[in-house]
Structure formats: structure tokens, C-alpha cells
Specification:
It is built from 18 helices and two strands. It has 476 residues and is mainly α. Helix 2 packs parallel to helix 9, helix 13 runs antiparallel to helix 14 (299-329) and helix 15 (334-355) packs across helix 16 (361-406).
Length: 476
């Protein structure tokens, strides 16, 4: 039972009944075998050192939060800036809507397929340096995009950009799960979420204005080169070992792939991310084109609309992350707090994005703005759920697999939207598909993901382990 801000026992009982009605009693059961050896419902497996929920973080870890948030900002700015340039690029290279859709989705082909490898990499090597190497690669690819002149070269550079950015979210998950206690992961993840929401908004606002004034090529080159400066503070302030939560090497082994696939919660997190990413990537890749071509806004006006929407989304992401942490400190379970914010935000985002085609230009802008705001709300808690379920030992691999499955939507959403647009000549059905997918993700969050407690991974023989992680478990 939880209490705190609700004031009386009837409110607390209502909250408990809400959990009992909406949440499945067990997550660990395999689809095929109800007696799966994996159990993700026992009591939370506690690290040997756990900070109090009210304990303050060291200043160095707050700096790391800011740097991760800024890197997520650059990450999404770099992956989304091609969609901002799409109207100019389409005319310059004479690209059809279908080819433009494939170009916009090219990034996700490598970004998604490299997630498994990146998740394994950050669990095995120094996550700070792996992240720095990926950051360098994607920034260099962004700068090079501004100097090529063929469709094939652009396609190749989007591939390279995807490889570099594939290390980002497994790295965030590993860093946060190692260095931040559960009651602080909402604000840490919301900083990353705010960055990923603010990046496209900044790109639309200032990127759109700068592209209109100086051309898209100059913007890409300057952005890529200036982004490299981020590496200097990261290499200076990246987390040190003595800040990390101590791990008991005898407590549990990291999972192998079959153990992971046997869990309903694993599939729930993957489906939820696929659906939320479908909405997000639809907006990132096609919103500028929609506002300019379907709603007849100028490039400058489109930039201001998109910039404002994503700025509000970033602010509400930070607010939602902070409030979910406070809710847990006040006595709510992580299950109630994380699921309500993540699932409820996704359902609301899908609703408002779908309503955007129901009215005139002003109504459409208001609905799209609310859609972006509620996407920011759901993004603030998406990875806090994963990090709690996986625990520090498996955070990189779980996140890598989840990103692999979830970012398939980055391939599907831009290409499917281009196909629907070419067949129908308008965006109505494209928006309806987004709404349906978002609601499916909300259902997965509430009903397919089980209680938000750390999985107790099946024990492995210590003789078959290296450094506390078994060789079998390294298979994910």
C-alpha cells in the first residue's frame, strides 16, 4: 500500500485496486512454459550499496546527467535534421516521395541492427569510452553529409550515422543503472528524454531558419564539427568507478538470449518502445513536410511551430520524470508511478496526434503540440522501467535488444508514411495508423509489462563465470 500525497486511506486503497486491476500478477511466465526458470516477480534484488531515495547526488553525477541530456539532444538533432532539409533536398536531387521515405529511414537500418552488438559491447568494455567513440562517429557522419551530392552517398552516410548512434541508449542505460539509485532514475532518464525531444525542436526552429538563410549543406557541416566539442567535457567528467553502485558478483548472472526471450516483460518493453518510437519517428521525419506541403505553412512558420512544440515537450519530460521520482519517494510503487506516466502519456500522445487531421490549421497545430508534449511525458519513464527490470548487470544488453526491436519502427514509419502518401495523396490514414500504434503501445505498457521490479536471473555456476558474469549469460 502507498500513502503520502493522497491524504487518506481510501485514496491509498483506490491506488492499490488500480494496480490489482491493471497489472498482471506475474511477468516471468514463458509463453510456452509457465514454469520458466526465470522469475522477475521476487523482491527487488538490492545492490550491496544503495543510496537513500532522499540522498543527494554528487555534483559530478549531476554534470554527467547534463552531458547525457546534451548528447541526446545532439543525437536526435543529427538524426532528424535530414527531414528538415527534405523539401529542399527533394527538389535539388529530384527525389520521389517513396525514395525520400527510404532515405529518411536508411539511418534506422543500421541503428536498429547494431543495437544488439552495442548492448553487448557496453556490458563488456568501458561504457564511457564506447559512448565517446560512437559520438565521434555520428558527428563526423553529420559533417560529411553536407559535402556529398548523390543519393547513394547520402544513403551511405545515413548508414554510418546509424552505426555511431546505436551505442547511445545502451550506454545511457548502463551508466544510469550503475551510478544512480532507482528513486533518482526518473530525473536522470528525463534529462535524456528532454534532450531527445528538444533536439528535433531545435532543429526545426533554428535549423529550419538557418537552412532557409544559408542552405542545408552549411548547416550540416557546422553542426557536425561543433558537436565534436562535446567530447572534451565528457572525457573530463565521465563517471568514475567510485561513484558506481557496488555489485555483488555472486548474486546473479547476466541473462542469455533465450532467458530474455522467455519473459513477457521483455516483449512488453520491446512492443511499447516500437509503438512510441513509431509516433516519434513519424513526427521527426514527416512533420516538417506535413506542415509545409499539407498545411501550407512557410518554412519559417514551420520552424517556429515545431520548435515550440518540442520545447514544451522537453519541459514536460523533465517535469514528468521529477514527479514520477517524487511519487515513488512519497510511497507509490515503481509499477504504479512508471506505468501511469509512460503508458498514460503514450495513449494521450496518440489521441492528440490523430486529432491533428480533424480540424483547420490552428486546431492541427494545437493537437500536434499536445501530441509532442505527451510523447515527452512517456519518454521520461520508458528507460527507467527497463533499467529497473534489467538491473545493472543486464542493462546494456536488455536495452540493446529493446532498441533493436523498438527501432524497427524507424524503418517502418517513414517508409510506410511515404507509401500511404503516394497512394492516397494526403496524410489522413498515415495519422490514423500512428494513433492505432500508439494505443497498442499503451496497452503493452499496462498489461504486457509486469511489476516493475528487478529480475532475479537464473543462477549460474561460479566455475563457469568470468568476472561475475557467466559465459552462458554473455550470449545476449
Amino acid at each position: 500500500m502507498f500513502a503520502g500525497p493522497f491524504g487518506d486511506s481510501s485514496s491509498a486503497l483506490l491506488g492499490v485496486r488500480f494496480c490489482e486491476i491493471l497489472l498482471p500478477p506475474r511477468t516471468a511466465k514463458s509463453f510456452a512454459n509457465p514454469h520458466s526458470p526465470i522469475d522477475d516477480t521476487p523482491e527487488l534484488l538490492m545492490p550491496t550499496v544503495m543510496a537513500s531515495p532522499r540522498a543527494s547526488l554528487p555534483v559530478s553525477l549531476w554534470i554527467v546527467v547534463v552531458l547525457m541530456g546534451f548528447s541526446a539532444f545532439l543525437n536526435y538533432l543529427d538524426r532528424g535534421n535530414l527531414s528538415i532539409a527534405a523539401p529542399m533536398l527533394k527538389e535539388e536531387l529530384h527525389i520521389s516521395p517513396v525514395r525520400l521515405g527510404f532515405l529518411l529511414s536508411a539511418f534506422f537500418w543500421t541503428y536498429g541492427s547494431f543495437q544488439l552488438f552495442s548492448g553487448w559491447l557496453v556490458d563488456r568494455l568501458n561504457v564511457n569510452l564506447v559512448f565517446a567513440a560512437g559520438f565521434f562517429l555520428w558527428s563526423a557522419a553529420t559533417a560529411a553529409t553536407g559535402v556529398v551530392h548523390t543519393f547513394a552517398a547520402l544513403f551511405l552516410l545515413r548508414f554510418i550515422l546509424g552505426i555511431g548512434e546505436s551505442v547511445a541508449f545502451p550506454s545511457y542505460a548502463k551508466i544510469i543503472s550503475l551510478n544512480y539509485p532507482p528513486a533518482r532514475r526518473g530525473i536522470a532518464n528525463s534529462a535524456v528524454a528532454a534532450g531527445l525531444v528538444l533536439g528535433p525542436g531545435f532543429g526545426m526552429l533554428f535549423g529550419g531558419l538557418l537552412m532557409a538563410r544559408f542552405g542545408w549543406r552549411s548547416f550540416f557541416v557546422l553542426l557536425g564539427l561543433l558537436s565534436l566539442l562535446w567530447l572534451l567535457p565528457w572525457l573530463t567528467f565521465m563517471p568514475k568507478k567510485h561513484h558506481a553502485i557496488a555489485l555483488d558478483h555472486d548474486s546473479a548472472a547476466a541473462p542469455n538470449l533465450l532467458e530474455f526471450l522467455a519473459m513477457r516483460s521483455a516483449w512488453g518493453t520491446c512492443l511499447s518502445l516500437f509503438c512510441s518510437n513509431y509516433l516519434n519517428y513519424f513526427l521527426i521525419t514527416w512533420l516538417p513536410f506535413y506542415l509545409v506541403r499539407e498545411r501550407n505553412f512557410s518554412l519559417d512558420t514551420m520552424a517556429k511551430i515545431g520548435g515550440l512544440a518540442y520545447l514544451l515537450g522537453a519541459c514536460f519530460s523533465l517535469l514528468a520524470g521529477w514527479l514520477s521520482d517524487r511519487w515513488i519517494v512519497w510511497g507509490a510503487t515503481a509499477t504504479l508511478a512508471r506505468k501511469t506516466v509512460s503508458g498514460g502519456g503514450l495513449a494521450a500522445a496518440g489521441l492528440f496526434v490523430g486529432l491533428a487531421v480533424a480540424g483547420g490549421p490552428r486546431f492541427s497545430v494545437a493537437a500536434l503540440t499536445l501530441g509532442v508534449v505527451f510523447f515527452g511525458v512517456t519518454a521520461s519513464n520508458t528507460w527507467a522501467i527497463t533499467q529497473t527490470l534489467a538491473g545493472p548487470k543486464a542493462a546494456g544488453r536488455w536495452t540493446g535488444f529493446q532498441c533493436f526491436a523498438g527501432n524497427l519502427s524507424g524503418i517502418v514509419a517513414p517508409a510506410a508514411t511515404g507509401y500511404v502518401l503516394e497512394r492516397t495523396g494526403h496524410f489522413f490514414w498515415a495519422f490514423m495508423i500512428v494513433t492505432a500504434v500508439a494505443w497498442l503501445g499503451a496497452v503493452a505498457t499496462f498489461f504486457l509489462i509486469g511489476p516493475i521490479k528487478q529480475v532475479t536471473w537464473r543462477q549460474k555456476s561460479l566455475s563457469s563465470s568470468y568476472g561475475g558474469v557467466s559465459n552462458v549469460g554473455a550470449g545476449l
